[in-house]
Design brief:
Blueprint: E1 4-12, E2 18-25, E3 30-34, H1 41-56, H2 64-74, H3 81-102, H4 106-109, E4 118-126, H5 129-141, E5 146-151, E6 179-182, H6 184-202, E7 207-211, H7 218-228, E8 235-237, H8 247-254, E9 259-261, H9 272-276, E10 282-283, H10 292-304, E11 309-310, H11 320-332, E12 339-340, H12 346-351, E13 357-359, E14 362-364, H13 377-380, E15 392-395, E16 400-401
Parallel strand pairs: 4-5, 4-12, 5-7, 6-15, 7-8, 8-9, 9-10, 10-11
Antiparallel strand pairs: 1-2, 2-3, 4-14, 13-14, 15-16
Helix pairs in contact: 1-3, 2-3, 3-10, 5-6, 6-7, 7-8
Bound molecules: D-mannonic acid (CS2).
The site of D-mannonic acid has 10 residues, from loops.
């Protein structure tokens, strides 16, 4: 039985901050888990180092479900992004170890491949509709079957989803939060023409997606869903904040545009009502922020009963360790929908050498035992943590708004 002899948290900033848990066992096996929580990284690092790791030493690394329950129920204080990211890191590292001991890629332990690869969506964005369409055409040339469209909003200086660099988007870019100015009216006018231009330029054989990023009220989101219906979007994402799950009933009453939500969810309890009432079509919860592979499988199994498919979050603030885990999960889960894929920079890829690959719009986790990701610790040590915050949003009159 492999016993856990040590565990360490490695914080590194190869272009952006990542928090990684590394677990070592007495038989020499090791596992990695992502624990990155953008803008709040050190809170998770401390939760792991100060409160979780002492409880792991000496445990049987093969007892994944038992350790999950121990950390979830045993803390007494449940749920929340910090707790669930820490549990996720432990859980992912233990699955990595189990795969290595078995000599199998993780997706084989999860039931085997249900498909040839995971369809991924790329991010096309630009300051203007023309720039965004140009970027989307480039993604189409690269073989992407699904493309997310985000464009600058006329009259607003900057907005979520529009990057300075076309391919690498990192919103957490300042030592203190930068402030954006927001107008729902201006934004709502800008999205339908973007989709009209995209269908005109890209045709109908490509899936088009859009992220509202929690910035609309339910009735505004309903209107956007209706306005986009003629262009048949694959989904609109996070169209309104989902703390109140009933918000989505209103959107559903008005529009048949598919809805995705859940990148900020941490447990099945955040989406139970949404799934049960079939108020959404895609659940975006992901390995790192929703308790790891063990808990995400539970969410997916519940979603499958209610015709909801997966569409896991995959922004650059999720490390290659999470990306690999998401691909093993996506390859094996029956109700897979799509996986988000924002490419990491070369610096990040060098710190986390990995076996996953992109071919013709699909990704595969590779066949190395476990997750198929390594961490080059000496290289990681050359990129020290750098405080960085996500931006905030204020309406034109100064009122705080969702970003
Ligand atoms: O859909 C997405 O990928 C986004 O909503 C993220 O880029 C999100 O803004 C970041 O993960 C926040 O850290």
């Amino acid at each position: 039985m492999p016993r856990i002899v040590s565990a360490r948290v490695i914080v590194t900033c190869p272009g952006r901050n990542f928090v990684t848990l590394k677990i070592d066992c007495d038989d020499g096996s090791t596992g990695l888990g992502d624990a990155t929580l953008n803008g709040r990284e050190l809170a998770v690092a401390s939760y792991l180092t100060d409160h979780v790791i002492p409880c792991l030493i000496g445990r049987d690394a093969q007892r994944i479900e038992d350790i999950w329950q121990y950390l979830y129920k045993g803390a007494y204080w449940r749920r929340g992004p910090v707790t669930m990211s820490a549990i996720a890191a432990v859980d992912t590292a233990l699955w990595d170890i189990k795969g290595k001991i078995a000599g199998l890629p993780l997706y084989q332990l999860l039931g085997g491949a249900m498909r040839e690869g995971c369809m991924v969506y790329g991010h096309a964005n630009g300051a203007t509709i023309e720039d965004t369409i140009e970027a989307a055409l480039e993604y189409q040339r690269q073989g992407y079957k699904a493309i997310r469209l985000q464009s600058g909003v006329p009259g607003l200086a900057s907005t979520y989803g529009v990057s300075k660099d076309r391919y690498f988007y990192e919103p957490a870019d300042a030592d203190l939060p930068t402030e954006n100015v927001w107008s729902s009216e201006k934004y709502l006018r800008s999205v339908p023409p973007l989709f009209a231009a995209a269908r005109e330029a890209l045709g109908w054989d490509v899936h088009l997606l859009h992220d509202v990023h929690h910035r609309l009220t339910p009735i505004e989101a309903a209107r956007l869903g209706k306005d986009l219906e003629p262009y048949r979007p694959f989904w609109i994402e996070d169209s309104t904040p989902a703390e109140n799950q009933a918000n989505f009933r209103l959107i559903r009453q008005h529009s048949t545009t598919p809805l995705a939500v859940g990148e900020v969810f941490n447990s099945i309890w955040d989406c139970k009502g949404l799934i049960e009432e079939q108020l959404i079509d895609y659940i975006r919860a992901t390995v790192v922020h929703a308790g790891g592979i063990t808990h995400l499988r539970r969410i997916a199994a519940f979603a499958d009963l209610h015709n909801v498919r997966t569409g896991c979050h995959g922004a650059t603030d999720l490390s290659p360790v999470c990306m690999a885990a998401a691909l093993h999960f996506g390859l094996s889960v029956p109700n897979f929908g799509v996986q988000e894929y924002m490419r990491h920079t070369d610096e990040t890829d060098a710190v986390f050498p990995h076996g996953y690959s992109f071919v013709d719009g699909m990704m595969h986790p590779g066949d190395a035992p476990g997750l198929g990701v390594e961490l080059d610790e000496s290289l990681a040590a050359t990129f020290p943590y750098k405080r960085a915050y996500l931006p905030v949003n204020r309406r034109e009159d100064g009122t705080m708004h969702d970003w």
